[in-house]
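Table S2 (text version). Query chain:
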Amino acid sequence: MESLKETKENIEMITTQLWQGKGADIELLSACVDYIVNEITAHLDEMKAVGIDFPMEFVSAASKNMLAAISKKDDYLLADNLYYEWREILMIFEEVMGEIKAV
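Corresponding structure-token output:
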């Protein structure tokens, strides 16, 4: 992954493919999720320094839900996980980082 924007676009593409019944590129999906988690983790100290406690329990729950959907081979559940959980995590992270940079 090169950026959060690219990661977001890949997640949207994978979500659309899943909803259309075309399956998912699990390697790309894994790379996207790894990138998101690594980006959040890399900025945790920066967030804490300004009093923001990022909801890592949400990230952990989203990871567990994603793995459950993959293990069940449930494309629609996986698409929902990407759309409603990982997309939300990205939006929160972008918002938090925007607030930090504005300070």
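Notes on Table S2: Helices lie at 4-19, 26-49, 56-71, 75-102. The mean pLDDT is 92.
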